[in-house]
Every structure is written in C-alpha cells, then in structure tokens.
Amino acid sequence: SQKKIESPTKRTDTVLTARHSRAAMKQKCVRCVVQLSLNELHWRDANGASIHLEGPPVFVRACLLGQLQHSHLHKPLFPVRLNQELTFDRVLTNCRNPALFSEVIRGEHVRLEVIQVSSDYKGSLEP
C-alpha cells in the first residue's frame, strides 16, 4: 500500500497568505501626529498684573496621546516666552476606519501643567 504524502507547497501557500493578512492588518490603522506650539505663558493676579515668582525655573509639562513631554526651563518671570514645539505621535491600532477617528480618541485626556522645579535645583536655564 502506498502512503499519500502532502505537498509542502500547500503549507507554504497557507503561510504566505497568513503573512499577507498580517501585513494588510498593519496597514489598517490611523497615525495621529499632534504638534503643540507653546508660544507665551501668561499668569496674572486678580488685578490683572503679571506675576513674578522668585526662585527656581519653571517648565510646561504636557500629556497628550498617552505621551509625556516637557518644555525647556525658563526663569519664572511672566509672561514666559517659550517659543517651542512639542510633537506627539501615536499609531491608533484600534481605529480601522479613519472616519471613526473622533470616536476612538473621545476618551483621550490632555493635561498641561506649569511646574516650578525644587529650590535645590543646580541645573542651567535654557533661553
């Protein structure tokens, strides 16, 4: 009696199809790039006068698209001229249809904070 031997070609075709499907799935995501321009930071008291803090420098920390970035350090004299751009880049793998982009990012949070470093900071200030 003869044994029937399966052709290795069929298995290879199946593997190639599976790889092709994974590649096709990778192409069906949405890449979101946000460029946040930080120009000036104003901080006024109740009378409308600019506040001047004493002591260590300040910076802006931004949390967007699940990423955390911060500006350069600046003297705490308001208005602070930041003139800096922060770029946030994220691939949304759960967004297969670009038309549904707004629904996918609806739960995203944006947080901007002005932080003054501790008084024992020994670093330098960037212009």
Rg of Cα set: 26 Å
Q: Which structural class do the helices and strands define? A: alpha+beta
Average pLDDT confidence is 76
Question: What gross morphology would you assign?
Answer: elongated
Strand order of the largest sheet: 3-2-5
The portion of residues forming beta strands comes to 25-35%
Uncertain parts: 3-21
Distance between the termini: 87 Å
**Percent helix:** 10-25%
Number of helices: 2
Could you state the oligomeric state of the chains shown? single chain
Can you describe this structure?
With 127 residues, the chain is an alpha+beta fold. The protein has two helices and five strands, in the order H-E-E-E-E-H-E. The protein has helices spanning 8-27, 101-104; strands at 30-41, 58-64, 67-70, 80-92, 111-116. Strand 2 (58-64) and strand 3 (67-70) form a beta hairpin.
Keywords for this structure?
127 residues; alpha+beta; 2 helices; 5 strands
Lay out the secondary structure.
Layout lengths: L7 H20 L2 E12 L16 E7 L2 E4 L9 E13 L8 H4 L6 E6 L11
Antiparallel strand pairs: 1-4, 2-3, 2-5
In short:
The chain has 127 residues and is an alpha+beta fold. It contains 2 helices and 5 strands; from the N terminus they run αββββαβ. The chain starts with 7 loop residues before the first helix and ends in an 11-residue tail after the last strand.
